[in-house]
Amino acid sequence: NHVSDTVKTNLWFFTAEKASFLVPREAVKSKHEGIHDDTTMTRIANDQFRDVAAEETLELYQDLINQASRKLSPVTTFVTENEHVGSYRLVICHRSDSGRGLFSGLSNLVKSTPSLLLTRKEFEPFHGFVVISLSITAESGVSPNWQSQLEDGVSLLFSSFASSSTTFSKNVTPFNSAYNTCAAIYVFYFHAHVSAETLADLDYLQNRLIGESKINKLHTMIRTQELTTWSESRIDGAINNNIEIMHLLAQHFDYLQSPYQHSNQSAAALESDIHKLIHALEDDFEQEVLSACLRFNALVKHTNMYRKSKSALLFEISTDCLKNNRRYPEQPYCILMIIGSDFRGFHVRFSDISRGGVRLIKSKSQVEWQRNAAELFFEDYSLAWTQQRKNKDIPEGGSKGVILTLAKSTDNTSAFKRYIDAILDYLLPDPETQPNRRSDDMVFIGPDENTADLMDWACDFACMRGLRTWKAFTTGKSARLGGIPHDQFGMTTRGVHQYVLGSLAKMGLNEEDVTKCQTGGPDGDLGSNEILISKCPSLSFISFHFTRQRTHSN
Q1: Which residues contact 454 (CB under 8 A, 6 or more apart)?
Q2: Cα–Cα distances in Å, from 526 out to 310, 414, 464, 520?
């Protein structure tokens, strides 16, 4: 509470005790990566809590943990302690491998709500879960729907970036904060930064046949200049310098996307006002950033921001965002942008039914993360476009997903799981917030860099979420789920090897009569299986090991 009647600064005391567990963590884990774990309170609770907790508290926490075990998003409930004096407890349960920054962010969330006083916070660890309890006093004049407002705020803090330094206010609500973060990421990746004059000059030089290598060098120089001029820090600065206009932009987004209010007339009137305010800005860069945020509002086709239960934010962005952009020669069918509290990612597919892997990118340092982040969408698009051409002779089109976790992140599995959870939000319309939306989309994913051992989990979780096509949701899964171990049977290798045999037959050669130099392998399953099934003598094997470094060119 306040230090004194004259000093209004709040004074907090924190006590911490190291938790001990009678039953080890491994004893309650299932074989399916967090699905069907043992959630019995006597086995997952820490010793101190189990010894002192009242029976009703044990029952409450057990119920919350049981609910949380079936989802990746937090579970919240309110407990009335003394209604006459406005005393309540907000209890939140979530999995322990997620919720970065939530405990600190909750203080700012409660303090930003008028007539609410936070008097106590408790953090209780369990095997696989965390329960947070907030003791709150609701004073006279509090909003009648303050409880639902807090629950919505918890959902947004958990699924986006919950920072202890974020101070919420009238113009910076949890919704506005999440919107600002996501709009800034959109501007960084999709706003066309190269002027029409520059592109015309490049066309002129290319037509003069100065050489492809020189053109590529020019593109690299331009891209380097782009990343300097349109850095994420500069974009964030432009947004933070214009919080009142960003508040109106978030309101405009709400008019267009909210399931609870649809007013095209109000949105049009507000858009006109926003245009006037943006054009009145003196800084050209800030004008361009905020105009791009307005375009973001118009290009979002679908979002899960309004779901009560979510573990990451998803936006389906119209592929018109790539129109007239020379880096992207063909418009895909669908672009999904997914933002979590500790990761960002994309999923691109080139037809309604597409298949491709999901890649998880790690960064050993902040410098490496910035380099990976700069080209994240371009990498995803390029991989999906390549997959589309590889899939030209089968019914499914090409797709690809990428996930970039924070630098030096130690638990990348949780990011993958919440990325998948957000995609399932997209595939399974919420009857409460999307009563009229039908989703006939079918997304299939496969293993790729750092995700090969998570395909079983994704398949099991899709089944738990109720996806009709859950058995086909992933490839590379184990035989118990109907999968075919591609490394054991050499599925990819046999397809490539048939191409080799066909080429030899066309040239009138027998496989046994030729020699081979092989690039790739023997550490990978494709290369090692090629060694096993081929009949021609191999002279050499060339294996490449490299750090992630991409060039910027068309």
Answers
A1: 33, 413, 416, 417, 447
A2: 37, 28, 32, 8
CB 78 within 8 A of CB 89: yes
Q: Where are the alpha helices (DSSP H) in 339-375?
A: 366-374
Neighbours of 342 (CB within 10 A): 19
Query: What are the DSSP calls for 406-472, one per residue?
Result: PTT-S--HHHHHHHHHHHHHHHS--TTT-TT-----EEEEE--TTTGGGHHHHHHHHHHHT-TTGGG
Percent of the chain residues past pLDDT 90, beyond the cut: 42
Quote the CA–CA distance of 376 and 227 in Å, as a whole number.
Answer: 13
CA distance 202 to 42: 69
Residue 457, Cβ neighbours under 10 Å: how many?
A: 20
Q: Express each pLDDT in 241-272 by its tens digit.
A: 999 999 999 999 999 988 876 666 788 889 99
Strand partners, 2: 10
Catalytic positions, please? 400
Q: What distances in angstroms separate CA 95 from CA 71, 132, 213, 278, 292, one per listed residue?
A: 9, 11, 51, 42, 36
213 in the Ramachandran plot: left (φ > 0), alpha (ψ -120 to 50) or beta? alpha
CA nearest to 338, candidates 375, 359, 313, 362: 313
> What pLDDT sits at residue 109?
87
Which H/E stretch holds residue 502?
Answer: helix 491-506
Place of tokens 């081979």: 516
Mean pLDDT of 176-197: 83
- Within 8 A by CB and 6+ apart from 201, the residues are none
DSSP letter at 364? Answer: S
C-alpha 68: how far from chain center? 20
- The half-sphere exposure of 504 on its side-chain side, counting CA atoms within 13 A, is 17
**With b meaning 16 or more CB within 10 Å and e meaning fewer, what string describes 124-155?**
bbbbbbbbbbbbbbbeeebeeebbebbbbbbb
Which DSSP category does 68 fall into?
Answer: H
Structure-token match 């002779």, residue found: 393
Q: How far apart are CA 457 and CA 466, in angstroms?
A: 14
Longest dimension (CA), the chain: 97
